[in-house]
Design brief:
disordered N terminus; mainly alpha
C-alpha cells in the first residue's frame, strides 16, 4: 500500500485522497464532455463529407466510362448502322463532359464545406467550447477526385485535338 508523504505518519492510504482533476474546459466536467462530443461530431461530419465526395467520384467515373463505352460500341457498329460513328462520338462526348461537370461540382462543394467546417470549429475553439482547434485538410478522397478531374480533362482535351485534326 502506497502512502502520500503527508499522510505516512497518520497511516492513511492514497485512496482517501481524491485524484487530481484533469484539465477541464472552464473547470467544468459537463462542458468538457460536451466539447469532446462536439469534436467527435466534427470528425463524423468531415467523414460524411468525404463519403459524399466518394459517391460523386463513383457517379462521375460511371458517366465518363459509360461515355467511352458508348463511343466504342456504337463506333464499331458504323458498318451496320449509318452515321452511328458520329452519334456515338456525340453521345460519348456528352457523357464525358457531364461526368466531368459532376466531378468538378462535387470537388468545389467539398472544398467550400471543408472551409466552413474549419471556420465553425475555430469559432467554437475561440469561444473556449472546444479543447483543440482542429484544421481539416484535404483527405485522400479529395486528392483522388482532383487527380481524376485532371485525367478526365486531359482525355477531353486529347479528344478535341484529335477531332480538330480529323476535321482539318
Amino acid at each position: 500500500m502506497l502512502r502520500c508523504s503527508a499522510c505516512r505518519s497518520a497511516a492513511v492510504d492514497d485512496r482517501s485522497h481524491p485524484p487530481a482533476a484533469p484539465d477541464l474546459i472552464g473547470g467544468d466536467a459537463n462542458l468538457d464532455l460536451a466539447s469532446n462530443r462536439t469534436a467527435l461530431s466534427f470528425d463524423s461530419t468531415r467523414m460524411s463529407a468525404d463519403n459524399t465526395l466518394m459517391a460523386t467520384v463513383r457517379t462521375s467515373l460511371s458517366l465518363i466510362s459509360f461515355g467511352f463505352t458508348i463511343y466504342k460500341v456504337l463506333g464499331n457498329a458504323s458498318s451496320v448502322l449509318p452515321r452511328a460513328s458520329e452519334s456515338a462520338r456525340n453521345i460519348g462526348m456528352a457523357m464525358l463532359i457531364l461526368g466531368l461537370v459532376v466531378l468538378a461540382t462535387g470537388i468545389v462543394s467539398r472544398a467550400r464545406f471543408g472551409r466552413e467546417l474549419n471556420r465553425r470549429c475555430q469559432r467554437l475553439f475561440q469561444a473556449e467550447l472546444l479543447a483543440a482547434d482542429t484544421k481539416y485538410s484535404a483527405a485522400a478522397t479529395y486528392l483522388a477526385a482532383l487527380a481524376l478531374l485532371v485525367i478526365g480533362l486531359s482525355a477531353l482535351a486529347s479528344i478535341f485535338v484529335r477531332l480538330s485534326r480529323l476535321d482539318g
